[in-house]
Amino acid sequence: MADLGRDDWMRVARLALLRGGVDLVRVEVLARELGVTKGSFYWHFRDREELLDALIGEWEIELLEDIIPRLQGRRGLPALRRLLRLMIERVPLSETGLFPSDAAMFTWAAVSPEVAKRVNRAERKRLRLLTDLIGDPRRVELMYLVWLGFVARGQRVPESRRRFPHVARLILELMQPI
After folding, report:
1. What's the pLDDT score for residue 2?
2. Helix, strand, or coil here: 38?
3. Alpha carbon of 47 to those of 31, 38, 165: distances in Å?
4. Is 55 helix (H, G, I), strand (E, B) or coil?
5. Residue 71 in domain
């Protein structure tokens, strides 16, 4: 594969993290997946640690820098509708390595105390942002717990991820004012 860029390495690293955990995010494994030598990796990353830091770093800022701006100033239920539409688009794309995966991050956090600290900090920020957007913190927590359950089940039963559009509609239904 000619003209590999940093994004190509990040994509295969995201997939490796999702499919096999952090132990599968190895330069040799990724190079083999891309059909290149390991030397190509070092044009884009100093070492494996830099790649791992880039993986968690992009996930940490994804909500703030990529998703929230796409809500275009919406608040309340309109914000939630837009957010869930974005998630419906992104869930399948994260499975192809185009976006970071919550499932991969949560699995990694379960085996690394350092990553768990970063994931926990990012989750607190996510919950604050969602509360600012949607309002009622109880509903935000419920929605987030539903999301976490969906992510956990998707790790055990990958075909269940196809049901996310249905789950998103159910979340919207549950979030409607009583």
Report:
1. 56
2. helix
3. 13, 11, 38
4. helix
5. yes
Q: What is the CATH number of the domain that holds 67?
A: 1.10.357.10
pTM across the whole model: 0.89
Please report, in angstroms and rounded to a whole number, the separation of the first and last CA atoms in the chain. Answer: 55
Per the structure, how many domains does the chain have? 1
Rounded to the nearest 10 degrees, the angle between the axes of helix 102-109 and helix 137-156 is 80
Helix (DSSP H) and strand (DSSP E) numbers for the chain: 8, 0
- pLDDT tens digits, one per residue of 86-116: 888 888 899 899 999 999 999 999 999 999 9
Give the gyration radius of the chain's Cα atoms.
Answer: 17
1 within some domain? no
Whether 36 is in a domain gets the answer: yes
Q: Judge whether 145 lies within some domain.
A: yes
Torsion, Cα of 133, 137, 141, 143 (10° steps): -50
Spatial separation of the C-alpha atoms in residues 66 and 83, rounded to whole Å? 11
| Number of neighbours of residue 38 by Cβ within 10 angstroms | 12
| Full residue range of the structural domain in which residue 141 is found | 6-175
Chain centroid offset of residue 8 CA: 17
